[in-house]
Amino acid sequence: MNKLIAILTVLFSLSAFAAGRELPITKLGNPVLRLTARELTQAEITSPEMQQLMDDMIVTMKKAGGVGLAAPQVNHSLRMFVMKSWPGVPLTVVINPRVEYIERDGTKNSSEGCLSIPGRTVTVPRYKKIHLTYFNRKGEFITEEVGGFKAIISQHEYDHLNGVLIIDLVDQMTGELNWEKYFNSPRM
Hints:
The chain has one domain: Peptide deformylase (Peptide Deformylase). The termini are far apart. It is built from six helices and seven strands, in the order αααβββββββααα. The protein has 188 residues and is of the alpha+beta class. The strands form two sheets. The chain has a five-stranded antiparallel β-sheet, sandwiched between helices. Strands 4-5 form a two-stranded antiparallel ribbon.
């Protein structure tokens, strides 16, 4: 029995190690958050290094208590993000996404925070439904129409890949940004 417990302990510790490690989250003020991220090649998507980065991003998102995390938020200017929220949004790795906004269903106001702007929540307009195309972590092409919280997370993370932060959307679309609050935000 002790032998079985020792074997299980080793297996669980190895699987935790193999699953990924927590990365530092890039904060407001770091220039990588303002870049347009580059696409990954098919060879890069399936490479061991990129698979490890995906695992690291998943661990980082979970440990930070987030529902999404884009590669620029961990200092990698790559067109990739991860998302997961219970219930309804399964763990998804999204690579080289394209978003088409479905205007016929309109927009809604979304109260959002951002791991790169800790302690701040703002209301931004988001499309209720989007058409999302991307490659998954196996390099398979996926196309889907998404709505609800998955659409909101996807739009938020997609913005990161284009150097856009939620504070930009508030300023451009509603003019309700409290600049004093953001000038006093924690920086990197």
